[in-house]
Amino acid sequence: MNDDSELNSTDIGMTPDEIAKQCAKVMSAKDEASRSLGIVVVDVGPGTATMSMTVRDTMVNGHNLCHGGYIFSLADSAMAFASNSYNRVALAQDCSITFTAPGKIGVHLTAHAREIWKAGRNAIYDVAVKSAEGEKIAEFRGKTRTVRGTLF
């Protein structure tokens, strides 16, 4: 198979949803960074992923608010699971985040990543991070590039 080609779901006898869920299972088993932050996979599909975490007291900065790096990590993990949902290894190549409200201790955050553009080996993902009450905490945009290899 050419490294630049898309893996066809019929090539491995699975639907696109089944491929996405298997990719998430494989990635989750190895993702110590997300696990250590309490980030969990809520849902995954082709080009999408929803992940969540609760802000712990060890995640706050000098203002007693969630450090932006933890929010960025949640959004980045959601993009990673969305971009790897096709069983092609995808890596982040550029990411930015805009914080719109503070995350507070005990708040449960959810990041929903969705693919907004994909061509060849490149893709762009938007990730919305919200509190359990629906308050927007951050908007994240990331660009990915597929490299050699598959997840399974």
Corresponding CATH superfamily = Hotdog Thioesterase
**Oligomer description:** single chain
Overall CATH architecture:
Roll
* Name of the level-1 CATH class: Alpha Beta
Outline, from the CA principal axes? globular
| CA-CA gap between termini | 14 Å
User: Count of DSSP helices?
Assistant: 3
Helix content: 10-25%
Which percent range describes the beta-strand content? Answer: 35-45%
Instruction: Write the CATH fold name.
Output: Thiol Ester Dehydrase, Chain A
Task: Describe this protein's structure.
With 152 residues, this protein is of the alpha+beta class. The chain has a single domain, classed as Thiol Ester Dehydrase, Chain A (Roll), CATH 3.10.129.10. 24% of the residues lie in helices and 37% in strands. It contains three helices and six strands. It has helices spanning 16-30, 32-36, 68-83, and strands spanning 40-45, 48-54, 90-99, 108-119, 122-131, 136-146. A six-stranded antiparallel sheet has the order 1-2-4-5-6-3. The chain is globular.
Outline of the structure:
This protein has helices spanning 16-30, 32-36, 68-83, and strands at 40-45, 48-54, 90-99, 108-119, 122-131, 136-146. It has 152 residues and is of the alpha+beta class. The chain has one domain (13-146): Thiol Ester Dehydrase, Chain A, CATH 3.10.129.10.
